[in-house]
Amino acid sequence: MKISLNFLSIFILFFLFTNVSNATVFTSVGIGAFHDPNIWDVGNGRIPGEFDDVVIHHEVDLNLNSKVTIKSLSISNAAIDFSGFDIYGTDTLVVMNDVSSTLFDYDKQVYLRIGQQATVMIGGNCHFLRIERNTSDKFLNFSLEDESKTFIKGNFRFDYLGAGSNEIVKDVKLDNNSLLEVEGTTTFINSAGNDFNLVMFYNAEAIFRDSLILILNGTGREAGITLHDTTSLQILSSAYIFNSSTASNDFAKLRVRDNASRLYIQENVYMESVGARVKLEAEGGGGKITVGGDIIMNASGEDEASINIIDDGEIYLGGEIIRQNNFGKLTMKHNGTLVFNGSDRQIMPEGNLPNSGSDSLYFKNVRLENTAGEAFVLSENMIVKDDLVLTNGNLKTDSTAMIILKDSATISGSSTAYIEGPIKKIGTTGGQDITFPVGTKTTYAPITISAISDQLSEVTVQYLSEPPPFGAEIFESTINNVSTDGHWMVEKNINTGDLNLTLTWEDSAEAGINEIDDLVVAGWDGTEWKNYGQQSAGMIGAGGFVSNSLSEPPPFGAEIFTLASTSSLNSLPVELQMFKATPRSGSVDLEWHTESEINFSHFLVERSADGRIYEAIQFVKSTGGATTPARYTFEDLSPYAGWNYYRLRMEDQDGSFEYSPVEVVKSKENTSIIVYPNPVVDVLYIQDAESQEGAVSVEIFDQNSSKLLEEVIRLDNGPVQLAKEDIQSLPSGFYIVKITGKSRSQFFNFVIAE
Q1: Phi and psi dihedrals of 43, rounded to 5?
Q2: Fewer beta carbons within 10 Å, N or C terminal of the chain?
Q3: pTM of the predicted model, to two decimals?
């Protein structure tokens, strides 16, 4: 057996060597058919075979009635004006190695055209090259037509010295259900002359399994890839668009146009310009671009790098828009839409950068469809000129980075996609009421305001989960009680005029609403809860709504609103059913449910670092009743580093109390800011345990949300004793300190002891 195997190996090697050594170069000597021996310079009636190199200097056509295999293919214009290879039929041409197509003389033209369901399989690289700059409108062309297919195992490269000014033939054209698939890198370069263009028409498809590189340099005037007519281009890696041309203001561009064309880029898009312009563009009747990663712009000046979404075009972005310097802009016109649909947390980019000139990110129609389960984060104010649609994932804002809806702009959301923080409306509402989809991390609580007609109007709304305002209970005579679940902040300027409000809740049982007819809108005017009445109210599924009947809540400036009842029939949320603590990044969420609350007053949330000594960190008023279950949540924004012990002190109206079971969790991340001691007797200290913040702003509020103290301190040199005289002068009770540093605002509760 061993001798036979050795003999077989020798035979195979001899066979291969004999055939390779007999490989022939077939060069065309005239116009004609590939299977005609008379067009080749090889005699004896031979035509090219699977070990032969083929060189075409004339116009040659190949009708694929059966499979044809050759070793390599070269097309050039060494002989006459036209040199080209037409491949058609219903079978396959296999080129085992490389394909090259070279244009040596600017006054000649060369082409490779594949059509009529033919299939071409290239085992190596495919390279198109123009040697001399084109000044006579003659073309170097590669085209696929009529359901033909081409598969390139290696790299695909098109080096171009530009088209003539009147050339009408596109350099690369995919048409009528054709398919081009490239396994290696695809590179298109225009270094001189007029335009280089790859265009796709009528259901054509291209798949680039590695990177796409599009370069415009030298004196080239344009390098563009354009998709028309329901075509599709998939780039299963990253796309690079580069322009350093000195010839004109034209673009290196990648764009989809009309009739639902589709461009899919699996990873990042890199857009780089050096004194020239680059563009990524979706336009026309539903042209769509999907980018799985980031869009990264690196420009040397304004108006050089741009993302354009025009007409009904759409760009779906799985990552972020990143500008590596001050330049790069987003332009949105008509119904163009930008969709953030990543599966990881996404950060909304800054719209305007310092010294960027006219460059900015112009947000018009924006949809949020992120599935990460974490809120989007704004890096600065996001100005929306038309529509902001929240589909999946919340958007987190604060006073320095919020959503600003311009004149007639709209916003929509749902219980799975809303704003956590403030949102501002500037200008008119187009004659319509406007609903703000706001809430906290755990609660969706939209608020609707009546139509605004003044273009100088400004209204800011926010929903907060703390009891409003921090436990104060002073009612006008018609109010029996108010909700302790949360409250809405509404602030408007003098140009806004009268406003009516509609408050919404999702769970009537959790909100403690039993009798809808007794429900009213209440507002805190700084002294007492004022009854704004009920114009209308209703139940919607498990939740409901109530609108005020007075014409002028709120007054100019900020006011707090919540649900109120004119009778005791609405408890407006003890038999403890559940108590749970869940660690988050930098905080701990507490949640508990009660089955019933008879003659019950309130909860005190208590926390301990060792399970022995507890401190009260939050007062929560009862919202349940004798037959009404209730649910409660509280977010501890300043847990201890490491282990935290939580319990509820449950106190009845007669002063008796009992404790809940203890929940023990380990904080995932603890803020470096420490506020102590708690309770406070003489002095309140603030310390930055990790020396991260430097200067911070400190504000202290009482139970009525009135600001008692505001100052800026530095935490660089250890603990700071905060306003000793002012602290000692405050009466005993609950207070909140807000500390704002470089990264974010943090809230701490503390008690001044008697």
Answers
A1: -85, -165
A2: N
A3: 0.67
